[in-house]
Amino acid sequence: MSRSASTKDERRPPVHPPVMDMRIDTRQVTPDNLRAEMLRALAAIHPEKSLQAQPEDRIPLEAFKSFRHSIAWEFNKLYWTCLGDWEKTTGRGYQQALPGGKSDGNDAEAVADSVADFWTLLRDMDTKKQLPAEIFILELGVGSGTRCGMFVDRFRALDQQRGTSYYPRLRVLMGDYSLETLDMSRPAVSEHMELCSFLALDALNPLKTLSFLRHKILYVHSTNMYDNLPDEEILRRDGRLFYVHVRACVPMSDAVKIAQTFDVPVEGIREWWTSFSETGPVL
Which of 38, 101, 147, 266 is the most buried (most CB within 10 A)? Predict the structure, then answer.
């Protein structure tokens, strides 16, 4: 290894090559389009190396910024607020959009194990005379209510089997920031409705709603909802850390369909989105 000396005034900051990070969604990519998509991405990043001008293939809805502040979260909130309208329009339940077309949180064996562990906790507290008269449990991000319904069904059956009479003392708190989602979850717990309370709450700060139950909730289950919460993404390359900035875009093919369907100019999609995010879908 060779080294060279220099005075303080002669030193220059090191020159680092540009960083490129390419993400590939293996659920959508196919062998026949992988090469074309990678070449398109490379051409967009290094247009000077392309042999011909690249047509615009998307319309940006915002400038590059931290993902935490992206309008993607406005859209996400709008989706859950108007979930029934989205499902009616698309003809598909939201769980069908998940990998495999279902939630892995609804696995019957996993729910049964969770119920058994919770029952054991209650029995131990009861033995020590520490079990309160009301047994509060909390479901964060109720979705369709299926998982919570399975849990309470299984708990009732186990409670009856072991003759402990804990089930009538349950107070089931179902929390979500989407009022429509809370309404849609009701059928899944219809047999236990007298035990359930439906609460509008923010998962980022649940104590804002539940502070009066501090230290009283004995069981909390969080659904697969943390991909629905704003976050920051940090990239590490060559020992350096980078904040990742993103921007929401509409593929040009979809922008053309939107323009034709709703009689708006393609170049006005960005402004149209601003109005749509404020008013929501009108069916």
Answer: 147
Per residue in 56-93, pLDDT (tens digit) is 678 888 888 888 888 888 888 888 888 878 778 777 77
State the maximum Cα–Cα separation within the chain, in Å, rounded to a whole number: 83
Predicted confidence (pLDDT) at residue 53 exceeds the cutoff of 60: no
- Taking a C-beta distance cutoff of 8 angstroms, is the pair 219, 138 a contact? yes
Residues 6 or more apart in contact with residue 171 via CB below 8 angstroms: 134, 135, 136, 137, 195, 197
* CA–CA dist 177, 184 (Å, integer): 13
**Contact by Cβ (8 Å): 88, 283:** yes
Do 228 and 221 form a contact (C-beta atoms < 8 A)?
no
pTM summary value: 0.68
